[in-house]
Every structure is written in structure tokens, then in C-alpha cells.
Design brief:
single chain, 134 residues, two-stranded parallel sheet, globular
């Protein structure tokens, strides 16, 4: 999951996923990290002004509401049940997503620096570009 590490709303979502995903299925990189910037550029996002996050589902990058739905499928019940959102037409889902994304700094503010993950989950965060990454 590539997220805006300066966004308090986004960082709160990461904290929530960390609490729910006890098995450690979801891994993270902030868009401000070298790896996050690399992935953003590779998949057409502006790392200096992110309008969405990326979630990789079996290697395929997803954005906006498709990314949210793919992510909740990885979480335990009852959160997994939110995947029913896929039955809402994508234009409506994405419009709601864009509304929240545009106002995310207004909702919970912005940090001066990216969140530092606690030691017990630090291995789930990737900051540097892995060797062999195209």
C-alpha cells in the first residue's frame, strides 16, 4: 500500500490496518519514501501532490475505490464485509473517494514529517527500492 505519509487521515488508516491485519498481509510504503516515489512515478501519480493511494492486488496497481475494496478484502471480518461496496457503480464510488481525498488535510490535518512506525511493525514498511525493481 502506497500512502501519503504526511496526511494524518492516511496515517490513521495505516494504523487501523496495522491493528486489524494481525497476520501482516498488507505492507506499506509512504509516497514520500524512495520506494513510494519510485512506485508513484512508475504508475502515474505525482509524489509531491498525491490524489490517491496505490494498493497492489496480486501485482496489479489499483487506485481510488478499487484500491479500498481490494484492501478490505485482505482484512478480517467484519471489515471484509465492506467489499460489498464493489456493487456500487465505480463512478459513484470514485466520486465519494475523491471528495474525501480532496479534503483529507482539512479533515485531520497534515504532519511535518512522515509517521515513524513502531518497532514491532517496522518490517512491514518498505522505504528503499528493493534490488532488481524495474
Amino acid at each position: 500500500m502506497v500512502f501519503d505519509g504526511l496526511c494524518n487521515f492516511c496515517s490513521a488508516q495505516v494504523q487501523l490496518i496495522l491493528r486489524m491485519d494481525k497476520v501482516g498481509v498488507v505492507r506499506f510504503t509512504s509516497i514520500q519514501s524512495p520506494y513510494g516515489r519510485h512506485l508513484a512515478a512508475r504508475f502515474g501519480l505525482d509524489p509531491d501532490d498525491p490524489s490517491t493511494f496505490l494498493f497492489f492486488d496480486r501485482g496489479q496497481p489499483l487506485e481510488a475505490s478499487d484500491a479500498v475494496i481490494a484492501m478490505v478484502r485482505r482484512l478480517p471480518c467484519p471489515w471484509r464485509w465492506l467489499r460489498v461496496l464493489r456493487f456500487i457503480p465505480r463512478p459513484l464510488r470514485d466520486a465519494a473517494y475523491r471528495l474525501v481525498a480532496r479534503n483529507r488535510y482539512r479533515l485531520l490535518g497534515k504532519r511535518e514529517a512522515c509517521m515513524v512506525p513502531p518497532p514491532h511493525v517496522r518490517t512491514r514498511f518498505i522505504n528503499d527500492i528493493p534490488p532488481g525493481e524495474p
